[in-house]
Design goal:
alpha+beta, 8-stranded mixed β-sheet, 5 helices, globular
């Protein structure tokens, strides 16, 4: 069965541009994946050089398996890479998915993650026939909790000792979710 998704090359908002990652992003992808906070909260394989960053970019930009839709988060004026957002673990039978993001240290605290998660969520609900999208984060990561809340993802509970993060420690996680029928305040 062909599960490939129709790739959307660009999503424009007033705050940012979501676009496919490109090889020219490799130095900033390497910086993102080498950042101690990114590595702490993401159990992703380490990207340790530019070749690894290019491989990661190629995998991120390949939507052919139909299991994820991922974009580079870019500044709308300069097109500079700021991070990545991904709707992943897409299950068309259950009409659900998960969402995650990573943002460069220089872009944190400016609403970048909130704008990216909001844009990707809107796109996913409009284009993938999803009913539910989940966002999970370590309870010890209050910044991700704030992003989830600002994006209208309601806290549903705590998953005890549910995930080993990039620092090798097992954490309790908050599970947040949005339903396609949820009304979310603009902002």
């Amino acid at each position: 069965m062909d599960r490939s998704l129709n790739r959307v090359n660009v999503i424009e908002t007033t705050r940012l541009r979501l676009r496919l990652p490109r090889h020219s992003d490799a130095p900033l992808v390497l910086a993102l994946m080498s950042d101690p906070e990114t590595r702490r909260w993401n159990a992703a394989p380490a990207v340790v050089d530019l070749g690894g960053a290019i491989g990661w970019i190629d995998r991120t930009a390949d939507w052919s398996d139909g299991d994820h839709a991922s974009w580079a988060i870019a500044d709308p004026q300069t097109d500079e890479f700021l991070g990545v957002v991904s709707v992943h673990s897409i299950n068309p039978d259950q009409q659900d998915a998960e969402i995650g993001y990573r943002v460069l240290a220089a872009a944190r605290g400016r609403g970048t993650a909130t704008a990216a998660v909001t844009a990707a969520t809107t796109w996913a609900f409009q284009n993938l026939s999803l009913v539910r999208i989940e966002l999970a984060h370590a309870v010890a990561n209050p910044a991700s909790c704030a992003v989830a809340t600002r994006c209208g993802y309601l806290l549903e509970g705590t998953l005890r000792q549910s995930f080993v993060y990039g620092d090798g420690n097992r954490y309790d996680e908050h599970l947040h979710a949005r339903l396609v029928t949820d009304e979310v305040a603009a902002g």
